[in-house]
Design goal:
Blueprint: E1 6-10, H1 15-27, E2 30-37, H2 44-59, H3 61-66, E3 67-74, H4 77-81, H5 107-122, E4 126-128, H6 144-158, E5 163-165, H7 173-195, E6 207-208, E7 211-212, H8 218-234
Parallel strand pairs: 1-2, 1-4, 2-3, 4-5
Antiparallel strand pairs: 6-7
The structure holds zinc ion.
Zinc ion (ZN) binds at residues 199-201, 203, 213-214, 217, 219-220.
């Protein structure tokens, strides 16, 4: 058990945040979840969230006892104030600054800040997010330094001692699958494979060995490659 005992997990319904939730359920006595509706083009992630939470409860009596309230927050203002391929019907491409246009400027900063406000009210002392600097598509708000700077800013601005935990920061996708295996065995790997959603295009027709998705968007490509490396290493 880590020194602080309660956590709020940024839970989107994707592979990374579901793995983070399992990680938090192992380490903290009390765990709550927060999700954001920000006008995503495809809200599949949001629709799989409640089912995933129920499935996680069924996987372990211990997790069921630790898992508390789920908070859904409307952040539709993000799609009103930005224009990206995540929130508008435009093709995914690389911008002049080298970042893909799926990058929503300031999104993780806003998510963490809103989560900190909810954590403050709920008396939760740790925020857990799936940010990752290894397979991060170059998003600057996924960087370890960004998160550390934000932790300092939040604690100064709210006079708190909230800790930002990012258990996937230095893991690639293969290692994220390995962490799921470590936390919940094959049952958790299969739940993440079949129950989570990562595809940028919201495709959920065919079940591949690595899960549902179009198979070609950057998120699917990363997920599929990581899964194949994971399975290859296992046999
Ligand atoms: Zn896809």
């Amino acid at each position: 058990m880590l020194p602080t005992d309660s956590a709020l997990v940024l839970f989107s319904g994707g592979q990374d945040s579901t793995t983070c939730l399992a990680w938090a359920l192992k380490h903290y006595a009390r765990v709550e979840t927060i999700g954001f509706d920000y006008g995503q083009r495809h809200a599949v992630e949001l629709t799989v969230r409640p089912t995933l939470l129920q499935s996680l409860r069924r996987q372990s009596a211990d997790w069921n006892a630790r898992l508390g309230e789920d908070h859904m927050i409307d952040l539709s203002l993000i799609s009103a104030i930005s224009q990206t391929a995540m929130t508008h019907d435009i093709a995914i491409e690389t911008q002049a600054n080298g970042l893909p246009n799926t990058f929503v400027p300031g999104r993780n900063l806003l998510f963490m800040t809103v989560a900190a406000t909810v954590a403050y009210r709920r008396g939760l002392t740790v925020l857990v997010g799936g940010m990752c600097e290894t397979d991060f598509s170059g998003y600057p708000d996924c960087r370890d330094d960004t998160m550390k700077a934000l932790q300092v800013a939040l604690n100064l601005g709210m006079d708190t001692r909230i800790k930002l935990e990012t258990p996937l920061m230095w893991r690639d996708k293969k290692q994220t699958w390995e962490l799921a295996q470590e936390l919940g065995g094959r049952a958790l790997v299969d739940l993440i494979r079949e129950g989570t959603h990562t595809c940028y295009l919201g495709e959920r027709g065919a079940l591949h060995d690595w899960g549902y998705g179009c198979g070609t968007c950057p998120a699917c490509a990363l997920r599929a490659r990581g899964y194949h490396q994971f399975v290859g290493a296992e046999v």
